[in-house]
Design a protein that fits this description.
Elements: H1 3-19, E1 25-29, E2 37-43, H2 53-66, E3 76-79, H3 83-95, E4 99-104, H4 109-117, E5 121-125, H5 131-142, E6 145-146, H6 149-156, H7 165-172, E7 183-186, H8 192-203, E8 209-214, H9 220-226, E9 258-261, H10 264-278, H11 284-302, E10 307-313, H12 327-333, H13 338-348
Parallel strand pairs: 2-10, 3-4, 3-6, 4-5, 7-8, 7-10, 8-9
Antiparallel strand pairs: 1-2
Amino acid sequence: MSGHQWVNEAISKIEADFQRSADTHLIRLELPGINGVEVYLKDESTHPTGSLKHRLARSLFLYAICNGWVDENTTIIESSSGSTAVSEAYFARLLGLPFIAVMPRSTSMQKIQQIRFYGGQCHLVNCSSEIYAESQRLARELNGHYMDQFTYAERATDWRGNNNIADSIFRQMRAEKYPVPSWIVMSPGTGGTSATIGRYIRYQKLNTRLCVVDPDHSVFMDYYTSGDSSLTIDQGSLIEGIGRPRVEPSFIPGVIDDMRRVPDVAAIATIHWLERILGRKAGPSTGTNLYGALQIAAQMKSDGQEGSIVTLLCDPGDRYLDTCYNPDWFAAQVGDIQPWIDDLCRLYGK
């Protein structure tokens, strides 16, 4: 098969897969404690691979193929804490390409099993800070392509439209009481999604503001406040998929209107509280997102403001049964979450 023929067929397969998938749902939460402020979850767990990272993986594959970096003989390597690797393994299998995920040993077993289900291999390292160099080494040794989500996430997606997540949110909000959200709240992993949303808001001349919430043990917020891109820490984030030990190239602070730190204990408590409302489990990054959104909602109500807030349900909780939904694990890692759950029930309901 000629190079151009393979590229044409690969892009056609990815585009056909996209057409087989409907848009993700937008869920309005019933929260009597903040009447006048509507809070919505953009449920990215309904993608074929179960997370927000499905959009990113599709964009990264198209970007790499169209740049001539990937052909029919290329081994794909990615550094990931799990969800991106799951989604990239799916697309690699779709194209018949070998896939290797370089991941910290602390990654949940459920994610590792999903990567293997899609035919991918998992190459585990001791510390999250080791994933970059190890991915580069493997790519060199195997003559493969390091997908490098942390560099290319902010440029692989067309932020002006083309059914990106921002375009989807604003289309789905059109029939709501407050169709233009006062805030969109999300947490950064690569920084690619916050870059897409922030750029889209500005390009479309919208009055929505973007709040980015960072977990404990992440340098993004410190970089946002200090401007020091050399910041690093030794400890990785407890909240899989978000927070980084270094400033990633895809994190664009200039598109952000506000940034807040959400304690890990608050994030874990929030997903347990959310289960009472939705009747199903969500992953811990969703807890970080929603806790930040609830803080803003409470402030809006206190200030006598009405409006809407949209945040992201990033992935399902069944990937974290041995961690965030294991009482022994979260007691050891973050302490007693019950007081936080009680506060959420008192302030917002349930």
